[in-house]
Amino acid sequence: MTNVVDLRSDTVTKPTPGMRSAIANAEVGDDVMGDDPTIQRLESLTAEVLGKEAAIFMPSGSMTNQIAVRIHCKPGDEFICEAGCHIYNYEQGAFAQLSGVVARTIEGDNGVLRPEQLHGTIRAENEHLVRTRLVCLENTHNRGGGRVQPYENVAGICEWAHEGGLRTHLDGARLFNAVAATGIAADEWSRHFDTVSVCFSKGLGAPVGSALAGPAEMIKEARRHRKCFGGGMRQVGIIGAGALYAMENHRERLKEDHANAQILADAVRATDGIRLLTPEVDTNIVFIEVEPSLGTAADLVTLMQQQGVLTLAITPTRVRAVTHLDVDEQALRRAAEVVAWAAEQLIAGAKPEVDRVVAY
Ligand SMILES: *Cc1c(COP(=O)(O)O)cnc(C)c1O
Q1: Ligand 1 centre from 26 Cα, in Å?
Q2: Measuring CA to CA, which residue among 12, 15, 149, 130 is closest to residue 75?
Q3: Is the dihedral of CA 336, 310, 275, 150 positive or negative?
Q4: Domains of the chain: which residue ranges?
Q5: For residue 77, which phi and psi values (nearest 5 degrees)?
Q6: CATH architecture classification, 253-347
Q7: Most-buried pick from 7, 54, 95, 248 (CB within 10 A)?
């Protein structure tokens, strides 16, 4: 299918010719023995960009987050996070399955927490209670619609956490989108956190991989746990080369994805029957709310799919569309026309036959 505009996620990108050539020519070695030069370059560049002593490559963002929880917490500990965050909702509760840790969720405003909401949440030393150890934040916030956390909230929450003796972890799967949207450098964001994870396979467009960055001692500990979780990989420079290429070449261009998301956002604003979840779209994620009296999110997704524009229904009323480096301005102009057409169909009473795969 050539003319399909795939906005389901920024994970759907395919490696560019330049990235494929970097992968084909990658120098490799046994990384479990510490011998892979491509991974060494990737880890030192990632640490440098994030202003941390060290970084470690891992196969997925879920693994970076779960290993972060594991190095910061012991069994019977708890971490505090926003209720819609990825670590809590989309990683199978692995912190409980693998590390014996519980989560305490606090409802944000589309993913955004204010420091005052956390005040008073650190539990007393008392043998009846779990121990509060860690705060995890997500920036940008996926389920919050790609929202950028206000910088002062991040700083305030982390300052409060550290004063209370807690550790802090940033799920920065899309941190570089927050950088592109605000002009605030990655190391400025990450200096508030003990550990930071970033994904190379989201907007950066690499086929595989994430990294966890932090103080050398913590990353050494993370390396131990990565082996335990089955994430020690041998000539992994083959995939690390794609991530390194993405770090060197694709961070700046995330601004194009944000500009393209505005094309779709403008179309949604101008169309009856649908609306944006938040007045502004901050980055590359557009959340479209369908007027329930007209139909469901899955109905809108199905209609758009008939015209070759792929999105995801993530709640009964909400559709997610994500821009990335495999969809250009022209593709988004097409998506903008198709979303307006699909909303008109719903207003006219269309009841499409919904395929299970388009529904949440
Ligand atoms: C995608 C994502 C991750 C990691 O997902 P993996 O599929 O495990 O790589 C983590 N956090 C957020 C916010 C994400 O969007």
Answers
A1: 25
A2: 130
A3: negative
A4: 17-249, 253-347
A5: -95, 165
A6: Alpha-Beta Complex (3.90)
A7: 7
Q: Counting beta carbons within 10 angstroms of the beta carbon of residue 64, is it exposed (0 to 12), middle (13 to 18) or buried (19 or more)?
A: buried
Q: Are strands 195-199 and 210-214 parallel, antiparallel or unpaired?
A: antiparallel
The one-letter amino acid code at 284 reads N
CATH of segment(s) 17-249: 3.40.640.10
Atom of ligand 1 nearest to the CA of 65: 10
Separation of CA 108 from chain center = 17
| Ligand 1 in reach of 87 Cβ (< 6 A) | no
Q: Tell me what pLDDT residue 360 has.
A: 63
DSSP category for residue 100: -
Using the mean position of ligand 1's atoms as its centre, give its distance from the Cα of residue 258 in Å. 19
Residue 330: the pLDDT is: 98
| Angle, alpha carbons 283-195-131 (nearest 5°) | 115
CA of 63, closest atom in ligand 1: 8
How many CB atoms lie under 10 A from the CB of residue 139? Answer: 28
pTM for this model (two decimals): 0.97
CA 60 to chain centre: 11
Closest CA to 294 of 264, 272, 266, 321: 272
Gap between the Cα atoms of 178 and 145, Å rounded: 12
Task: Quote the CA–CA distance of 250 and 44 in Å, as a whole number.
Answer: 17
Provide the token pair at 255.
């601004």
The H or E element spanning position 114 is: none
CA-202 nearest atom, ligand 1: 1
Ligand 1 contact via 210 beta carbon (within 6 Å): yes
Atom of ligand 1 nearest to the CA of 141: 13
pLDDT at 359: 63
The pLDDT value given to residue 356: 76
The rounded average pLDDT for each run of 10 residues, N- to C-terminus, in the chain (360 residues) is 88 97 98 97 98 98 98 98 97 97 97 97 96 98 96 98 98 98 98 98 98 98 97 98 98 98 98 96 98 96 97 96 98 98 97 80
